[in-house]
Design brief:
The complex is a heterodimer of chains A (about 350) and B (about 350).
Chain A (H helix, E strand, L loop, with lengths): L17 E12 L2 E13 L4 E5 L6 H7 L8 E10 L3 E2 L5 H10 L1 E4 L13 H11 L5 H14 L4 H5 L8 H13 L5 E5 L7 H18 L2 E6 L3 H4 L4 E6 L2 E7 H6 L4 H8 L50 E3 L2 E3 L2 H19 L1
Parallel strand pairs in A: 3-8, 3-9, 6-7, 7-8
Antiparallel strand pairs in A: 1-2, 1-4, 4-5, 9-10, 10-12, 11-12
Helix pairs in contact in A: 3-4, 6-7
Chain B lengths: L1 E12 L7 E13 L4 E5 L6 H8 L7 E6 L2 E2 L5 H8 L2 E4 L13 H16 L4 H13 L4 H4 L9 H13 L5 E5 L7 H18 L2 E6 L2 H4 L7 E6 L2 E7 H6 L4 H9 L7 E2 L31 H5 L13 E2 L12 E2 H5 L9 H4 L5
Parallel strand pairs in B: 3-8, 3-9, 6-7, 7-8
Antiparallel strand pairs in B: 1-2, 1-4, 4-5, 9-10, 10-12, 11-13
Helix pairs in contact in B: 3-4, 4-6
The structure holds adenosine-5'-diphosphate (2 copies), iron/sulfur cluster (SF4) (2 copies) and magnesium ion (2 copies).
The site of one adenosine-5'-diphosphate has 13 residues of chain B, from strand 1, strand 2 and helix 1.
């Protein structure tokens, strides 16, 4: 079964891997059930930080909720599996088993964690509630662990536990959210928009803490954000979502340095940067699709794509993996073939 | 033209963990925004940016100092006589979601201020609809699509454009944009920034741009001025591009260093600066305000408060006792990799000038 949850530290080799396969999540709408996540395959290698980026509505939060099997009505997981080492297929879990897995195996820091704490209870009280709901026998040890984690993140644990949410700054609340996600020794951690609405220095501090705690505890971490910059520095791998699909996935340096999907290329060109030519940067044209405007066939990105071909209108591109890079795009597949032929020709020349 | 001299503002806060305390939100800030010009204020949360924006827009009082709008000092006027002046300065909020009334269509949202404007300027009623259409086109959205809709039916980017259109109904001289792109998807931010830049050129509107993300300040025009605000004091001021490529104040350097590096595309600056601790807005008032967090602080820094001034060696003004250019911003990884393609005048060129 799972590794001993009371073990205080452990190492990356024991971090769990996560394999999402054929995952589809639909929401009930006046137009019928529509997919917010469509047939997604995504592997989180043990001990890595994966960033998932994409515009609002691309399905990031929905995908993340599936790691806890926590999609709420009017949504439901319509197909697929989420295998987590030491836990099994989360989609198949239910009842008490699932409740215990949340927090103990998978820790979750919700989007806008800055505002998701209970305003009427001190942080310490909320910590004890969390412990009791998970049947933690030694609550004193739990408080000690919480204080250690808070100290680890540069805060006075005793004082924070005595505080109410409104007495803490945005960056402090975010750290409290991380503490609550980790205090039950979860080894898979999901952070949804952890730095949105924080200033740059606070963001940098939070990201450094995420990286350090990740390394120290041997976690497998998923960070979700609309801001590539917020994960560029902290993630090992980057997955790009559009219209409920993962359209590109690979090592972060390679995806940023040599993006292959036209959407990834546009997303990177749209980042306001400190270096680089101001004239070359531009906002992505058009607007992101909603559940109702997603085309039923063909490539979901074609309305905004500058490389659109005839085939893109009718055939949905499948995700192809080559040299550790996954891309779902007809044009990118042609590029890859061309590179391969050129490389062969060089070999024979 | 709007200028401010020596603007100060102190808040008395009650009920914090530490009991009652005073926060000096602004400590004698000077600024000037010209017609069609652009000025950016940057700093962490809690440094006084929003307070300054609200004061400039006439929505907050100030303790001392003078604001002069089109040559008229506001201190000489009563509350009522100031209003027409402050109406020429329109504030755009950070949150395009709460800025618009959810029960009104965009048409209704624009109609009310335009009807008022028509009355003030003796224009016929028919002008109102024509002007609404004109303004929406100006901010880059399709009036036919947007006018009948409610805010929740629009994306964040569209909403922010509507908010800007509404601000323009007042024919403002200056737009104060307080974190106007922070809540919008990164993919759409450059579009809003380009719009602000465009409004400067086409309408001669001045822009006072408030942000915690220095990179965005580059995109409102290469003639813009940057003010770095720290705990209510301007600690560095000058041309935006100069301060970004050759910052001399350790606080500015901290802000620039915190901007994430896009690995694969960029290499980190060689001398990134990280503050030694977190911001305490009610912290010590002795010496340099940044000294408790500054990695380069000396005994002198604790004893003396540096004031904003030119030191004759740099284009910008700064308030630091030990100014030194540091290469903190990311370097283009591609240009770095190919020698001979160093067309940038930024950080590489700076290396030799470091003192
Ligand atoms: N409870 C819900 N009911 C109906 N549609 C929803 C619900 N939650 C999310 N959606 C839709 O699913 C899509 C994906 O949403 P989400 O996962 O929140 O995306 P992201 O986190 O990338 O912004 C969006 O089009 C959104 O409108
Ligand atoms: N209405 C208020 N009452 C008390 N303190 C305030 C008020 N508004 C702002 N402050 C304080 O003034 C300082 C500057 O705040 P603000 O102008 O909002 O900064 P910024 O916009 O740079 O984040 C902060 O310490 C803040 O807590
Ligand atoms: S599949 Fe076609 S439309 Fe889609 S991103 Fe690739 S080229 Fe563009
Ligand atoms: S005056 Fe001293 S403490 Fe202040 S910023 Fe300069 S070096 Fe740092
Ligand atoms: Mg989300
Ligand atoms: Mg503010």
């Amino acid at each position: 079964m799972s590794p001993d949850p009371t073990a205080p530290t452990s190492h990356a080799h024991s971090a769990p891997g996560v394999r999402v396969r054929g995952l589809t999540v639909v929401y009930k709408t006046p137009m019928g059930e529509l997919p917010a996540v469509s047939n997604v395959d995504l592997t989180l290698a043990p001990g890595t930080i994966t960033g998932v980026v994409g515009e609002s509505g691309s399905g990031k939060s929905t995908l993340a909720l599936c790691l806890l099997n926590a999609v709420q009505p009017p949504g439901r997981i319509a197909a697929g599996s989420v295998e987590i080492d030491g836990l099994g297929d989360v989609v198949e879990l239910g009842g008490e088993e699932l409740r215990r897995a949340r927090g103990r195996h998978v820790g979750y820091v919700f989007q806008a964690a800055q505002n998701s704490l209970n305003p009427l209870k001190t942080i310490g009280k909320q910590l004890l509630d969390l412990g009791r709901s998970h049947g933690v026998a030694d609550l004193r040890a739990l408080v000690r662990d919480a204080k250690d984690l808070l100290a680890r993140m540069g805060m006075d644990g005793a004082r924070v536990l005595d505080s109410y949410q409104h007495e803490l700054s945005g960056g402090m609340r975010q750290r409290v959210g991380i503490m609550l996600a980790l205090v039950l020794n979860a080894r898979v951690v999901v952070l949804d928009e952890p730095t949105t609405a924080l200033d740059m220095i606070t963001q940098a501090t939070i990201l450094r803490i995420v990286r350090e705690v990740h390394d120290e505890r041997g976690l497998t971490t998923l960070v979700i954000t609309h801001d590539v910059g917020a994960v560029a520095e902290v993630a090992d791998d980057l997955a790009v979502m559009y219209g409920g699909r993962v359209v590109e996935h690979g090592p972060v340096k390679e995806v940023l340095g040599d993006p292959r999907h036209p959407y990834t290329q546009g997303l990177i060109r749209a980042i306001p940067r400190l270096s680089g030519d101001i004239g070359e940067a531009r906002a992505l044209p058009g607007r992101p699709p909603t559940l109702g405007t997603l085309p039923a066939a063909g490539c979901v990105f074609r309305e905004r794509c500058d490389r659109r071909m005839d085939v893109c209108d009718t055939v949905e591109p499948v995700a192809l993996t080559r040299d550790g890079r996954t891309v779902a795009c007809h044009a990118a597949a042609e590029d890859a073939d061309r590179r391969l032929t050129a490389a062969r020709r060089k070999e024979f020349a | 033209m709007i200028t401010g001299t020596g603007i100060t503002k102190t808040f008395k806060q009650r009920g914090s963990v530490l009991g009652a305390r005073e926060v000096r939100a602004l400590r004698g800030v000077d600024f000037a925004v010209e017609a069609g010009g652009a000025v950016s204020f940057i700093g962490e949360s809690g440094c006084g940016k929003t307070t300054l924006g609200r004061i400039i827009a006439g929505l907050e009082t100030y303790d001392s100092g003078e604001i002069v709008i089109d040559g008229v000092p506001m201190s000489g006027l009563g509350h009522r006589r100031r209003q027409p002046y402050f109406r020429r300065i329109q504030l755009i909020h950070q949150d395009p979601y709460s800025a618009l009334n959810p029960t009104r269509t965009i048409h209704q949202t624009l109609e009310a201020p335009l009807a008022l404007r028509a009355k003030q300027t003796g224009r016929p009623r028919s002008w109102v609809d024509a002007r609404a259409t004109e303004l929406l086109s100006l901010v880059g959205i399709d009036p036919g699509y947007v006018l009948p809709r409610y805010p929740h039916q629009l994306s964040g980017g569209m909403r922010q454009r509507v908010v800007i259109a509404r601000a323009l109904t007042m024919d403002p001289e200056v737009l104060v944009a307080d974190e106007a792109v922070s809540m919008i998807d990164v993919s759409l931010r450059l579009g809003i920034l380009a719009l602000l830049k465009d409004l400067r050129v086409r309408l001669g509107v001045g822009v006072l741009f408030i942000t915690h993300d220095i990179a965005t300040a580059r995109y409102i025009g290469d003639d813009s001025e940057l003010y770095v605000l720290y705990r209510g004091q301007v600690v560095e001021r000058g041309p935006t591009e100069t301060i970004i490529t050759r910052p001399v104040h350790p606080y500015t350097q901290s802000l620039l260093s915190a901007t994430p590096v896009l690995h694969g595309l960029e290499l980190p600056g060689a001398e990134r600066v990280v503050p030694t601790e977190a911001l305490d807005p009610g912290g010590s008032d002795e010496g340099c305000l940044f000294a408790p967090r500054c990695p380069f602080a000396t005994q002198l820094c604790v004893e003396r408060r540096p004031t904003l001034s030119h030191d004759g060696t740099t284009l910008q003004e700064h308030a630091c006792l030990h100014p030194r250019v540091r290469s903190v911003i990311p370097v283009d990884a591609v240009n770095r990799a190919e020698p001979g393609t160093e067309q940038r005048t930024g950080t590489e060129a700076d290396t030799g000038a470091r003192g």
